[in-house]
Amino acid sequence: MRILWAKMGGLWPATSGGRVRSLQIASDLARRHSVTVLTTHGPGDDPDGLARELSHCHRVISIPYAVAKRGDTEFAAAVARSWLSSYPVDLWKWRVPSLRSEVRNLIDRGAVDLCISDFLFAAVNVPMQGPVPVVLFEHNVEYLIWQRLCAVESRRWRRALIEIEWRKLRAREADACARADLTVAVSEDDRRRLEALAPGIRAVTVPTGVDTNYFTTNGHRERAAHLVFSGSMDWHPNEDAVMHFADVVLPRIRAQVPDASFTIVGRNPSPRVRELAQRAGIVVTGTVDDVRPWIGEAAVYVVPVRAGSGTRLKIFEALAMGKAVVSTTVGAEGLGLEPARHFLCADDPAAFADAVISLLRDADRRRALGQAGRSLVELNYSWPIVAGVFEKHCEAVVARSQTPVMPRLKGQTSRAVLICHERSILDREALASWLASRMTLAGLIIIRDGHGRLWRAARRELRRVGLLRFLDVAAFRIYARLRLAKHDAAWEQRTVREFRRRYPVNLDSIPRIVVTSPNGADARSFLAQLRPDLIIARCKVILKPAILQMPRAGTFVLHPGICPEYRNAHGCFWALARRDLDRVGMTLLRADAGVDTGPVYLQAGCDFDEVRESHVVIQHRVVFENLDAIESVLRSVCRGDDVPTIPTDGRHSATWGQPRLTEYLRWKRAARRTGKFQDADHIPAFS
């Protein structure tokens, strides 16, 4: 693979967990693939050292760029500009035109098979949904860091500002995950959070690693009652952790162990952190060439982190050196550690202090925890193992982007026409691509809704349900436009992109006609010329008998709902709203003069997450994830086989109207209380 690795903020020296993780994986990939590393460097970074460290990479390009930091005039200007945009300042300040131009030049030259956006901050400089697939490497759930910082911030004015930032960051992070071809998280917890943030994304987990040959137990003598924390001190969660520990936890420890000392190891400590060195028994090192001697002196390694996301490499480094660790839940989350076996877990200050004190008084317990931790990382978390997992996921992304999943089979002679609405890109692009790859797509009839259609539909709904329920329908339309449409559109774009890759057909060569009604003379004439074997109807218009009778094998509807119980266009919504989860699915039926009343040939469902997915996503997925079964039935029908239908006599039959806001909100509340996830086994795919 030809990989472009884009990373903001430099990689060398490897003084932070994110840098270590990126450097180790990129270095390992470069031994088997052509890797170009594109990054920035500021004061304190060493681009020449990076080039030497990654000498086996194809190219290492580092662009000078000093990011604005808190207290700088440039940072204040970045904050002001970000407030006028949808970007939080944490992303705005990493918009680097020169790096963005270099990325596009490399891609335009055809020199890249895969682009890795290393951290969310690189995503603002990487062309998503372009000619090259993009892997978003999420070392953290970035918005969650700021959300947690907001929760522990005591100053109201500052908490209000952080609230704005994390909400903007959440929106941009969801958008980036939605547009990436693959999102890589560093823990199962983070993967689930990202999937909840952007439902429908393709996300995987690649665990954190550690260099078990570099971090060892040999040659390091611990100091009595000595505590150590290490990490980048220019990262706000780390600053908050050591300040909280020094102010609240350490005094409790010293009440029982008076000679307890504390060393803070890490680059760029803030003035607040540097001031801690004025207190007795506290050392602040700043940047060090080698962290191992400092960790080696620890009797207990502490991780009092209250905010943050991702995983903390610092814990694996301490465990690899055989150190006993005390951490908060947040500090150890996502690492696969077992409390009381690999570390001690404590969250409130008193419990944290008690855990540290107990270890300081029990050398055997410290030794047992350290040995168990060392064994764990040796077996599961060495960097070659981690990089190999990352590599397999990258290869899968490239394979999906280059190879059709299901090429057209030989001997396909059935001719089909698809009728769909112009506004439905899923039907006219995704479904059309699939249909053209499975049989001969003879033509497309695309319905362009006239200006009066909405008013006619509104009048019909008003007459059908009355004024109050009509206002409920209108309220849902507004709500959906403001709260749901963006995520639904992002899911649709991802689905279309995936179908284009799976079924790379040239839709521009397919005959098509744009009409205001599929029952008009133009549509009839078009069909008469094409002489299709069957019609696939994905439209909200009742087709007249003259149209239904034109194809030899019949006209079929891919209905998003289980019929006859949930007829009309929004069947899935009403099954969800009524908590009738056994009937959330799709129906393949032959169209007749009624509303979804024809013979039923197939009913099927799929797994869905009713908390995180909208009804729009679910009603499309129940169709698109059963296309193989649909194809099998349609082929049999076109061959003239005696295809059995599903009996519906005696079943309740109902036609449902437009979604209503009150029903939608009631459904979501019930979903959050009860299930969240529904297994597809409730509706077997049968025909």
Short summary of the structure?
With 687 residues, the protein is α/β, with parallel strands linked by helices. Helix 6 runs antiparallel to helix 7 (156-179).
Can you put this structure into words, describing what you see?
This protein is an alpha/beta fold and 687 residues long. The chain is 45% helix and 15% strand. The protein has 25 helices and 22 strands. The strands form 4 sheets. Strands 3-2-1-4-5-6-7 form a 7-stranded parallel sheet, sandwiched between helices. β12 (325-327), α13 (329-332) and β13 form a beta-alpha-beta unit. α7 crosses α19 (467-502) and α18 (453-465) crosses α19. It is elongated. The model is unreliable at 405-412 and 676-687 (pLDDT under 50).
Strand content: 5-15%
Largest beta sheet: what is the strand line-up? 3-2-1-4-5-6-7
The general outline is elongated
Helix content: 40-55%
Main structural class:
alpha/beta
Please specify the SSE layout and strand pairing:
Blueprint: E1 2-7, H1 17-30, E2 34-41, H2 47-53, E3 59-64, H3 73-83, H4 89-92, H5 97-108, E4 114-118, E5 134-138, H6 142-152, H7 156-179, E6 182-185, H8 188-197, E7 203-205, E8 226-230, H9 236-256, E9 261-265, H10 271-275, E10 282-284, H11 292-296, E11 300-303, H12 313-320, E12 325-327, H13 329-332, E13 344-345, H14 349-360, H15 363-380, H16 383-402, E14 415-421, H17 425-438, E15 440-447, H18 453-465, H19 467-502, E16 512-515, H20 521-530, E17 534-538, H21 545-548, E18 554-559, H22 571-577, E19 586-590, E20 600-604, E21 608-609, H23 615-624, H24 627-639, H25 661-674, E22 677-678
Parallel strand pairs: 1-2, 1-4, 2-3, 4-5, 5-6, 6-7, 8-9, 8-11, 9-10, 11-12, 12-13, 14-15, 14-17, 15-16, 17-18
Antiparallel strand pairs: 18-19, 19-20, 21-22
